[in-house]
Amino acid sequence: MTVVQHEWDIEGTFNISKIKRILRENASLLFVYGTLKRTSFRPNPFHYYLYNEQLVNKSLKIDACLLDAKSYPICSVDNSVGKKIYGEVYDITNPKTLQLIIQVEKGAGIYSLYLCHKAGYNFLIFALSSKFIPFKFYKNYPFIDSGMW
Predict the structure, then answer these.
(1) With pLDDT > 70 as the criterion, what percentage of the chain qualifies?
(2) Which H helix or E strand runs over 115?
(3) C-alpha span between 11 and 103 (Å, rounded)
(4) How far apart are CA 79 and CA 66, in angstroms?
(5) What's the whole-model pTM score?
């Protein structure tokens, strides 16, 4: 079971010292599931942000769901829907990498950064902010039942 331990709203200020503190005190691992993945059936335009980071696990399955927003997937860490998603886990050694990814994810205006635990990993993941009412939001986008983008 995937356990959510903390949520940070990325719409606020995320300076480099805050990012360093999150990586040092919480987790340096980042779970990616969509346009940041190295391996996929679709072109992933943002994977180059992770070129200098080490791939730790190329196929971790977590309890969450993916929604299809056409040009990108939306992840929700809501476990109540009984879905799974597959992604890759990277060890983030350079805080500037996470800072760049936060800027990309911030553009959508719907994400938070979560700290989760699954299968011996504490990891960070960008997912739908808890300030959105999940079931109303889900009606706008179909589930990606395979859990893969």
Answers:
(1) 93
(2) strand 111-118
(3) 9
(4) 11
(5) 0.91
